[in-house]
Amino acid sequence: MTISQDARPSTTDRHFGPGGPVVQPPGGYRDGMTLTRIAPQTGTAFLLRAGQRLTVVDPTGEQVSDFFAVMDDDRDEWLSSGRTIDYANSTAVTTGSVLYSNRSRPMATVVEDTCGHHDLLLTPCSQQTFDLLYPEFEGAYHPSCFENLATTMADFGVDPDRISTTLNIFMNVWTERNGELHIDPPTSRAGDRFVLRAEADLVVGLTACSAEKSNNGVCKPIDYRIDG
Question: Tell me, what's the pLDDT at 16?
């Protein structure tokens, strides 16, 4: 796996969080929307009822958000990247894409996407991710999307072993012909959004990704709202 890093965003409002540098989002991108903010390197979980829409917004640009869901009526039915890829015959997720469960039921449909680059291949970052792929951290504790998903979804009775491959919104992953994966800086810009319509009652976990190298070196917040 190759992880690329371009120049980090320039800002005078940079400060340091528990796992690395973060930046404050610029103003003026909200366009009157009422949004809930997920702080850098944290996550949340909530119920999303059938027909409701979840809007995920990148407030600063170049920030990934890990999305995972299970059926509210059965915690053993969860988002399956494999079935989603299989039925679409594509690894791309964008407007019109349907997310399927491990039992082949539609869970959600993408109804709007202003970015166009997202990932269905990689699992959420975990402590083991940083231990294996970030040797510069020398095994020190690091916030992770898996921990944040497991902690917040536990409040809804979701066992950590049910959390598998996530939909990594705004993550820029591509593959060489020989199968080698590349992680480049997200192409999302401040205000880009990704909107899902729930096709069933879901328990959703959502993060502001904790892996610095997936976010062009800087961990930033994610905003979201639920409508309908």
Answer: 37
Question: Does 19 have pLDDT greater than 90?
Answer: no
Residue 168, token pair as written in the block: 């990594």
**DSSP symbols for 137-180:** GTT-----HHHHHHHHHGGGT--GGG--S-EEET-EEEE-TTS-
Beta-carbon count within 10 A of 104 CB:
12
Q: Provide φ and ψ at 85, rounded to 5°.
A: -65, -45
CA 92 to chain centre: 15
41-61 pLDDT, tens digit each: 999 999 999 999 999 999 999
Please give the backbone phi and psi of residue 135, each rounded to the nearest 5 degrees, phi first.
Answer: -60, -20
Q: What is the pLDDT at residue 135? A: 87
Q: Where are the alpha helices (DSSP H) in the chain?
A: 81-88, 127-133, 145-153
Encoded tokens for 26: 């610029």
Position 34 confidence tier, pLDDT thresholds 50, 70, 90:
confident
Helix (H) / strand (E) containing 215: none
Q: What are the CA-CA distances from residue 132 to residues 125, 136, 140, 213 (Å)?
A: 11, 10, 12, 14
* pLDDT given at position 30: 58
CB 35 within 8 A of CB 223: yes
The overall average pLDDT reported for the chain is 89
> Positive or negative, the Cα torsion across 167, 170, 171, 174?
positive
